[in-house]
Design goal:
Blueprint lengths: L2 H4 L3 E5 L6 H12 L2 E4 H15 L6 H9 L3 E4 L2 E4 L2 E2 L7 H10 L3 H12 L7 E5 L2 H5 L5 E6 L2 H14 L6 H17 L12 E4 L5 H14 L7
Parallel strand pairs: 1-6, 1-7, 2-6, 7-8
Antiparallel strand pairs: 3-4, 4-5
Length: 228
């Protein structure tokens, strides 16, 4: 990483699935006038490409090669894969479950590492994922580890899916989420855990606005302006 890039501030927001990382990251970035990185989308996009292209999901190198070939662009709410908006498709549970599985592959994580770091552009970046503070941006001045009760997260995801027109079963979602949490925590490569210097925020009983304000307060407490 260049010296210039190292001077660009980053706020990382890590946490388990459906903890609200993406929503909070976008709101914080909007308040600060910064860019946002949804790292999970890159893994979901890879999973979708694997499904669409018939790539062997158990072949770690083939999956990594699929990731290297991704033609991706983020435009507001749109997530473009080869020019097609797949924002809805990558939120399907089958894609999310496959993304969780392949995220454990070392070749894939390495393939996406520099692509993620390339999002670090002035005036700043809010990056959400599972290893943003521990692996991708370990020098970030503020690292948030966002948690929430697993039932609260399952209920949020169920509501999100139904609002997007997808069928969703709360009991099945809760089971899938517990399995995914365990897989993310115990994987050998970049397991889900809080960075040693991260601030843990429990959003179970907080609104989106309240959670955003907690993050911005942490940021301003470091001596930086809270918002534009």
């Amino acid at each position: 990483m260049s010296a210039a890039a190292a001077r660009i501030p980053v706020i990382t927001i890590d946490g388990p699935t459906a903890s609200g990382k993406g929503t909070i990251a976008h709101r914080v970035a909007q308040a600060l006038g910064w860019a946002v990185l949804d790292s999970g989308a890159l893994y979901r996009l890879t999973a979708l490409a694997v499904q669409q292209q018939g790539v062997d999901e158990d072949d770690e190198n083939a999956v990594a090669q699929a990731a290297q070939r991704l033609d991706v662009a983020f435009q507001g709410e749109q997530v473009l894969l080869s020019g097609i908006d797949v924002a809805g498709l990558i939120r399907q549970e089958s894609v999310g479950n496959l993304a969780s599985k392949i995220a454990a592959y070392a070749p894939l994580r390495q393939a996406l590492l520099e692509r993620q770091r390339a999002f670090r552009l002035a005036p700043g970046l809010v990056a959400d994922g599972r290893d943003m503070g521990t692996v991708v941006f370990p020098d970030a001045p503020l690292k948030i580890f966002l948690v929430a009760d697993v039932r609260a997260r399952a209920e949020r995801r169920c509501k999100q899916l139904k609002e997007k027109g997808f069928s969703a079963n709360l009991t099945r979602l809760l089971e899938d989420m517990r399995e995914r949490d365990e897989r993310d925590r115990t994987r050998a490569n970049a397991p889900l855990l809080a960075a040693a210097d991260a601030k843990t925020v429990d959003s179970s009983a907080l609104s989106i606005d309240e959670t955003v304000n907690v993050v911005l307060d942490f940021w301003s407490s470091l001596g930086f302006p809270a918002a534009q």
